[in-house]
Every structure is written in C-alpha cells, then in structure tokens.
Amino acid sequence: MTETFGPLSPALVLILAGLVLPLLRGWLRDGLFLIAPVLALVLVWALPLGPGLVVDWLGLQLVPLAPDRMARIFGTAFGLAAITGALYGVSQSQVTEKAAALVYAGAAQGIAFAGDLVTLFIFWEILAIGSTLVIWSNGHWRAGLRYALIHVLGGVLLFAGIAAEISATGSVGLQAIRADNFGRWLMLAGILVNAGAPPLAAWVADAYPKASWSGTVFLSAFTTKAAVLVLIRLFPGEPALLWFGLAMAVYGLAYALLENDIRKLLSYSIVGQVGFMLVAIGIGSPLALAAAALHAFAHILYKSLLMMAAGAILRSTGETRLSALGGLARAMPLTTVALVIGAFSLSAVPLTAGFVSKSAIMAALAEGRAAFFWFALTSISAGSFLYVGLKLPWFAMFRPGERREIAEPVWSMKAAMVLLCGTILAIGCVPSALEALVPEIADVAILTPDHVLFQLQLLIAASCIFVVLLPLLRPRAGTTLDVDWLWRELPRKVVAMWAPLSAPIGGAIAAGCEPLRVYWTGFSRRAVDNLSGASNWRTGKIAFWATALLATYVLIAAL
Amino acid sequence: MIASHLPVLVILIPLLGAVLAALSRHGFAAWLIALLASAAMAAASLALLFRVQAEGMISYRIGGWAPELGIEYRIDAFNVLIVVLVSVVALLTMIYARRSVLAEIIPERIAWFYTMMLLCVAGLLGIAVTGDAFNAFVFLEISSLATYTLIALGRDRRALVAAYQYLIVGTIGATLYVIGVGLIYLSTGTLNLGLIAERLAGIEGSRALIVAEAFIAVGICLKLALFPLHAWLPNAYAYAPSSAAVLLASTATKVAIYLLARFLFTVFGGHVDVGALPIGAILIVLSVAAMFIASAAAVFQNDVKRILAFSSVGQVGYITLGLALANPTGLAGGLLHLVNHALMKGAAFMAIGAIVLRAGTAKLDELSGIGRTMPWTSAALTVAGLGLIGVPGTSGFVSKYYLILGALEAGFGWLAILIVASSVIAVLYVGRIVEVVWFREPAEAARASREAPLELLLPMWVLAGATIWFGIDAEWPAGLAAAAARQLLGGAP
Amino acid sequence: MDHTRRLVLIVLLAVLALLVAADFFVEHHASFWIDGTPGFAAWFSLASAALAVLVAYGWGLLMRRRGERADD
Predict the structure, then answer these.
(1) Pair B238, B177 in one domain
(2) Of A174, A436, A520, B477, which is the most exposed, with the fewest CB atoms less than 10 Å away?
(3) Residue A23 in contact with partner chain B when CB distance is under 8 A
C-alpha cells in the first residue's frame, strides 16, 4: 500500500499546490486553494500505518514518509486547520499569502510524517520560509525579517545538533533521546526556539499579529505545534521540558492578562498553552505524550477559531485593540459565538474539546505524581479563564460601546467558524470518539460528576475574581517590555548613546587610517578592474603563465 | 559483428557524417546528416556503456595489430562515461542547433558549421576512446582545429580574435603535450598507455619522466583551462555561435580533464618516483584559486555568456580538486561534477542561446524582466544556476557533497570549508542573473521577445531536468562515478 | 463598585456556593488528597486567580510602556 502512495505525501500535495497556485486565476485558484488541504487530509488517513519506505540518498537512510499514530494525530489537526483556514481565507486577495500558506501547511505535514532527521530538517526550513512569506505578504518587512532571523537561528541550532547527532551515532533515525550532550542540547534549543520557549518566546507575539486577518489563522496553527510534535518524538521525558513548559505557561498568562491587542493576547496565550504541552512531554509517560498530542490537537482547533474571530473583528472594524472595541455582540453575533466557544475551549469549560485535552494532561500529571506541576498548572488554568474567557469577550464584544455600522464577515469566513465550533463541541460532548485516535485516554475521567463540578467551581471562582478586580484588568493602550527589547530597542539606544562619542573618536581613527584607506580604495579598484577584464589577457600572458607553471612543476619534481 | 566494432564506430560515424555534411553544401541537409550521425553515435555509445557494464573493459585493436605495433582503443568504466556524455550532449546540441544556427550564421557557411561540429565531436570521442598517447594527440588536434573554426564562425567580430588567441594557446598546449609524449616514448619505447604504465614500473628514477609528466600536465591544463591558464576560454565561449558554445562548454574541457586524469592515475599513478603527488599539491592550490578567483571574476561580468564562461573556469577547479584529492570519494565527486557540470552548463548555455535568439542580446543589463516573456527558458537558466551553486535538490549539491566528504577523508578540513565558502560566490553571480531576469520590470528587449521555440526548449529542459533528477535520484550517476574512480585508482587501465 | 457589578458578583457567589454545596455530595477521586476535599477547586481558584491578576498587574506596573514599539 505504501508503495502505491509512495511519493504522494500530504506534504507534497500541499507544497505543489502552493507552487502552482500563483499560476492559476479566478475560480480555479480558489478551487485548488480549497481542495488541496482536503486532499492532504484524505491522504493522512489513506496512508497505512507502518515504518515507511527507506530511501537511500547519498548514503543516508532517509524515510521521507513514515505514517505512525503520532503523525496521524498531528496530520489530522494540521489538515483540519488547513481546510478551515483555507475556507476562512478564500476571500483574501493576496495570492502570495495563499500560496505561502499552502506551502507552510505542507511543510507542517512533512514534519508530521518525517521519519528521519534530514527530512525533518528540510521541512523545518520550508516551514520557516512559508511562514515568513505569510507575514511578508501583509507588507510587514521588518517584522518578517525579525521572525526570519529568529528562525534562521533556530534552524542553525537544529542543524548543528542534527549534524552532531549523525556524526556521533551514525544514524539519521528519529529516536527518543535525552539532552545529555552538547549536540543534543543544540538540537533541543533549536526545537525550543520554534516552540516559543523562553528566552526567545517574544517572537510569537511579535510576528503573528503582523500577518493579515487570514494569515494569522495559519500562523497560529503550525509552527509551535510542529515543534511540539518533534519534542514528543525526540525528547519524551526530558526533565528540562517541565521547567521550560512551566515558564512558558506563566509567561503566557501574565503577558496575556496585560495585553490590549486581541491577536497579540492570543499569541501570548499560544505560548502559555504550548507550555502545558511541554510539561506533559516532560512527564514522558505514554498517557502524558498522548495528552500532549491531544492538547495540541484541541489547541490547533480552538486557537484557529479564536484567531478567525479576531480576524473577522479586524476585517469588519479595522481594529484589534480591546481599548478601542466594545459592543460588537449585537452587530456580529456569529463572530461573538465563535469567540466565546473558542475561549471556553481554551479555558477547558466542560463540553468543549479543551476540557477533554486538559483533563488528559492533568490526569497524566497526577499519574506521574508530579504534584507541584499539577497544582501550578491548575492554578494557571484558573488564570487563563480570566484573560480569554472573560476579559476578551467582555471588552471586545459585550461591554457597552459605541454603536457601529458594521457587517458580519462574508459567508466563507462564517462557514469556517461554524465548522470549527461544531468540531470543538462535538469532541467535547463525545470524548470517546477520540479514543480511536488516542486510545491512551480511555481511562481518563472527563465527564464524571466530580470532575465537572471541580472545573465549574474553578471557573466560577475565577469569574468572581474578575468581577471584583475588573479595574485592574481594564485594557490599556501600550506595550509590555519583553526580551525582544534586547534586539529591537537596545541597538537603537546604543547607537543614540554612541553618536556624540563617535564623532571625535571616529575622526581620530579616520585620520589614522587615511593612508590605509587610500591604499585599499586603489587596491579594490584595481582588483575589480582585473576581475572584470580578466578575460582580456594578452596571449603572451597566458604563454607566460604556462611557462611559469611548467617551470614550477619541473623544479618541484626535480628537487 | 557490428557490436564488436562499437569502439571505432563511435568515431567513424561522426567522421563520415562530417565528410557527408561537407559534400552536401546545403544547410538543412548538413543539419539532417549531423542529427542522424549524432543519433547513431549516441546509440552506439549507449550500447558501449551497456557492454562495458556487462563485460568489463573492452580492448579493440585497429586493423588487428597488437598494441605494441598498432593502435589500441580501450573502453573502461571511466572513459565510457565520457563517451556517453559527449555523444548525448552532442545529440541534444544538434537538435538545438538548427534554429539557433539559422539566426547566427551566414547561410553559405551553415554546412561547414555542421561539418566542424561533427569533426570536433569525432576528435573529442577519439581522445576518450583511444589507448594510445600519440593517437590522442592526433584527435586533440582534430578537435582543436574544428573548435578554432567554430569559434571563428561567430557573428561578433571579436570572435576572430578569440579564435586566434585560442589557436595560439591551443597549439602551445598541444606542443607541450607532444613533447611530453616524446619523452615518454624515449624512455619506454611505446606509445600505448597500458604498456607505458607497465614499463614505467620497471624504470628507476628517470628525470626525463618527471619532465615528461610536467609537460603533459601543463599542456593538458592549457586545454582544460585550469586557472591561470584559462584566459582563452571566456572570450572563446562568449563569441562562439550559441550552439557551438553549448558543445564546447559541456564537452571540450571535460575531455581534456579526462585525458589529464588518465595520465595522472593510469599512466603515472603506478610509478613510485613520478606519482601524482607533486602535481597533486600544485593542482589543489590552482583548483582553489580557480574556485575563488574565477568565480569572483564571474560576478563582475555583464555578458551572461561570460558569466557562465568564468563560472566554467571556477567549476573546472572543483573537478581538478577531485582529481588532486586522489581518494575514492573525492575522485568520484570530481568525476560526478564533471558529468553534472557538463549537463547544467549545457542547459545554461542553451538557455542564454535561446535568449540571444529571441532578445538579440546576452548583456545582463538589457535582459531585465526577461523571465516574464520567456519563463521556460529563464526557469531552465535558473535551475542550472542553482545547480552551479550546489543547492540541495540539484546535481551540483551531490557532487559537492562527495567532494567535501573526499576532502574530509583526506584530512583537509579547511578544504571542505573552502568548497562551501566558494559556493557563496556562485550565489552572487547566479543571484545577479536571477534578480535581473525575474525581479526587474521588463526592459525593451524583454518586452519585444517571446518564449523560445520548442526545439530549443526541449533539449534545454532535458539537461535542466537531468540536473534536478540527478540531484534527487543520485544513485545512478554516483554509482557510475564511483566505479570510474575505482577503475582509475586501481592503477591498471 | 457600581450596581450591576455588585449584582453580578452576588449571583456568581451564590452559584459558587451552590456548586460547593453540591461538591459535598459527589464521590471524589483525589489525585493528591487535598484536591479531593469538597470546595477545594473554589478556594484554590479564588486564590490563584487573584494572585494571577495581582502578579500581572505588578509586572505591568514595572514593564508596561505607553505607545507602540518604535519599529512596528
């Protein structure tokens, strides 16, 4: 069976479609944009589970297509995100963004199905290129460049780690390892950059809100979750991940509580939720890994939905700042419902997908006797409800605001949101349906009375605090300083400080170096002249060189 | 049996074709003859490849004379590769040539052009198949004389000067070579390469042999345009007719490299005193110089043909580096790059030839936005350019990968770094072309031109496709190159 | 505190009281003993949500700047 599907991986379908897309026009383009992700999802399920075909390439045993259960879970999530994202964004007029989004989604599928480090790295880089293009296609050159540079750094770290791993073990296979030597630490660091872990977590909230209303939906789904998958495959049970994950959860919570821009708030929340997954991977038991995968699955669905609602608000009002929004619930009822369902799923309200996956993570922590992390994450869960379940809908949609003449988004955007709402609620109401995908969660208590009651107390209590401390949570215009200050503002400040000093010092240096500079100018001009006229040698010069070479040979040989 | 005469047939077919083409006096008839002859030649060389793969080395004695007296043709895993490369590229060039020649050459001279093309191919194939040092000189002269004429047929007036310069340099090279062969003959009493190798083993410390090796190496290095003996090449390639440039760029220097490798490894490789070592050290230095300086010169050219020509000098450096490394992996990488570079440079010269046909210029600053009106041609040029850089997924990556492994195997970590570093220069000159062709607003030349005809696109994309194909499915060419490298390092021809 | 907010708070507290009351009548499957005690989730959540808001507010006092980033 694998032979019949041989080269036809979901990744290839999407990437090829992305490359062909700019050549098409009109409904053909839209049709391909919508069909390709569906085809990819069909392939995810049509590929039979197995070790995959081994391809010998330059002496490396590559497995470009290794469909296992993890690949199928993430492939399904990536597939659903691509389908709904394409449906949502089909009315986007920027073809660059659409093409880049398909390539980007394809690269994520490629990572999901990669069976070796080299294939993984290749798709890792395509992923970075695709996502950068998505940001650039919205015209944010500088932000895109910052994003690209961070990912180049991550890619270099990963490449160095992979090279060290291959030269140490001689194998390119994906196997569970611990960060126990320098090369593996490099690899872990490279993956963590993509996962949005500290100290470089700032890129997520910097880059994602810079894409268009439709581009951010794609961005929110793939990069960080692909990194989660790679961590599940390579570093299950790595103790360092517990602390990285906890730090991300705390960071995401604090920054999201402070943030004013909806899409920035949701980006911080991505970091927080990926933190939950990292803690589960750090536990490393089969249940914990399944829970991490499931949480990634659910998170891709509800974060896409939230970003879609945010994109709809942006497209209708031209605004995403909470301080400038309000009173949209009446004008945009469907968007409001989508926002609330997405937010409730993130906060693990019972009967949503998020409740299922978060229950699984908590059960895995309990099973692993990780009491500290259990209580810490439960506490952060309560906090998460504050910013996403209460602050976001209240300030954006429900609080009294000025009346605006705005319309609901176009039908394709609505259809995508309805589709995701349905999926999230269906998973939440019938969690057993997921057992085909993730059988490990069969024994997890989800919709039991004590567990539901526990969660409801958690949420209502947090709501009480929200009402009491509302003045402290009122969104304010501004920005919260982050580690990215180091590369976004420090250089500017240093330059400003340096400027008054530099004139006299620079003058002195310039005076000292003048003869050198004159010499260098002359030298470089002569070099360029020589190079550009390099072929206009006289014949005699060639003959001279031939003689010289002959003489050298004879001399060396004779000595 | 025709099959047993295959080694001589691959030379006789183009020679006969050349005579017929000259007699025909008619452009189209000459083209048809050249095409048919090339097709027959390609078929014969492929048959030869399969025979060599099945039976091993083939020895063919002209007229049945023993090697001591007569001329012997020897086909082994190494030179069969060259034979196939030359004849297949020649066939593709002939398909490509018709439209391009009609536009570039005076009608009365077209028949002569094809005559010279066939003679040149016959000479190149002859160098590849012969096992006789002096016979190789004869074929070298045949191909060189044909090449001088081909270059001089170019439309540009500077073509004459280029041809004249090449004539002088080529003659110096051939003279040095023949002096070297004479010295060997004095010492060993034979011109047969196999016999020379056998008898050299019995000779102790002869100064004459060292000098012979130096003369032969420098003579051939002039022909293969090793830096700094390269200066004839850029003008020759730039002003020759487009289709002649395709043939020369992808085959002429490659055959010279073959001859150098044959002498370094098969003939002198087995001899203690005149082993490849002193030559090797100099060769590494010159190869690295070529990789950097010639590539840097390419960055500063404005004529795309000259960019490609300088890039050829640089890329020859990688191949000779593989020879100089002289270990199985490095040598395989060098030979692989020989084949891969022939394919990608052929594609690149075909693409720029098509652009010259449509837009009438090869000057970079006049080609802005040509990608909009000639997308397929420009795409082929881009693919070839990516191959020259050595981007993964192209054949250039595979051969450089082997070269780097070879350098590491030889313990030259710094050399591996230099290989990667010099590729950055290729990024510059290829990047310039790509930027102008794709990302600039179409200039006058671009707006006035349209996509090249199919008979130009087809051979161009066969070569560009091979560049991609051999980059992804590297097994087959890498296997052939590894076999050839083993053959060479094994000592015996 | 304005009228509506006070009303909402009273309703929420009433619901919370009801939930805590109900918590006494279900069978608990504690993971770490204390989380199985009735009403644990309520007080733990009150404490953590308040802590989260206060920590974030404090961090905001330190790190929140007016205006956009210079290079956005």
Answers:
(1) yes
(2) A436
(3) no
Which pLDDT score, from 0 to 100, does residue B276 have? Answer: 45
What's the CA gap between A288 and A237, in Å, rounded?
Answer: 9
Residue B490 identity: G
Longest CA–CA span in chain A (Å) reads 97
Q: Is A326 in the same domain as A429? A: yes
Quote the radius of gyration of chain C (alpha carbons, Å). 19
Looking at the 3D structure of chain B, how many domains does it have?
A: 2
Domain end: B275, B298, B329, which one?
B275
Q: Is the pLDDT of residue A100 over 80?
A: yes
- pLDDT, position A490: 84
Q: How do the residues of chain B divide into helix, strand and coil, expressed in percent and rounded to 5?
A: 80, 5, 20
Q: Tokens 């910013």: give the residue.
A: A387
Domain count across chain A: 2
Residues B287 and B261 reside in one and the same domain: no
Long-range contacts made by residues A265-268, C-beta under 8 angstroms, separation at least 24?
A265/A322, A265/A387, A265/A388, A265/A392, A266/A208, A266/A220, A266/A303, A266/A306, A266/A307, A266/A310, A266/A388, A267/A204, A267/A205, A267/A208, A267/A209, A267/A220, A268/A204, A268/A205
Round to whole Å and give the CA distance between B369 and B435.
9
> What does residue B160 show for φ and ψ, rounded to 5 degrees?
-60, -45
Distances (CA, A) of A77 to A72, A80, A112: 8, 5, 10
User: Quick one: which of B466, B225, B407, B3 has its CA closest to A535?
Assistant: B225
Q: Name every chain A residue with its beta carbon within 8 A of the beta carbon of B211.
A: 554, 557
Which chain C residues touch A374 with a CB distance below 8 Å? 31-32, 35
Return the percentage of chain A with pLDDT > 70, whole number. 97
Whether residue B219 sits in one domain with residue B336: no
- Cβ count near A558 (within 10 Å): 11
DSSP H/E element including A61 = strand A60-62
Q: Is the same domain home to A203 and A284? A: no
Q: What is the pLDDT of residues A72-88, one digit of tens each?
A: 999 999 999 999 999 99
B264 and B325 co-located in one domain: no
Any idea which residue has 């402290």 for tokens?
A472
Task: Please indicate whether, in this complex, the C-beta atoms of B234 and A543 are within 8 angstroms of each other.
Answer: no
Report the chain A residue with the minimal C-alpha distance to residue C22.
A453
Decide which of B245, B275, B305 is a domain's last residue.
Answer: B275
What does the pLDDT look like over A455-503, one tens digit per residue? 999 999 999 999 999 999 998 888 888 888 888 888 888 888 887 777 7
How far, in Å, are A322, A475, A480, B184 from residue A471 at the CA level?
A: 14, 9, 18, 99
Q: How far apart are CA A506 and CA A215, in angstroms?
A: 46
Q: Please give the angle made by the CA atoms of B289, B292 and B295, to the nearest 5 degrees.
A: 125
Q: Do A488 and C70 touch (CB under 8 A)?
A: yes
Note whether A19 and A73 are same-domain residues: yes
- For residue C58, give its domain range: 3-63
Residues B94 and B182 in one domain: yes
Same domain as A133, residue A243:
no
Cβ proximity of B85 and B344 under 8 Å:
no
What is the domain extent for residue A317? 236-488
Asked if the structure places residue C70 within a domain, the reply is no
User: What is the SS3 string spanning A415-446?
Assistant: HHHHHHHHHHHHHHHCHHHHHHCCHHHHHCCC
- The nearest alpha carbon in chain A to B401 belongs to A58
CA proximity to B488, closest of B334, B339, B269, B273: B269
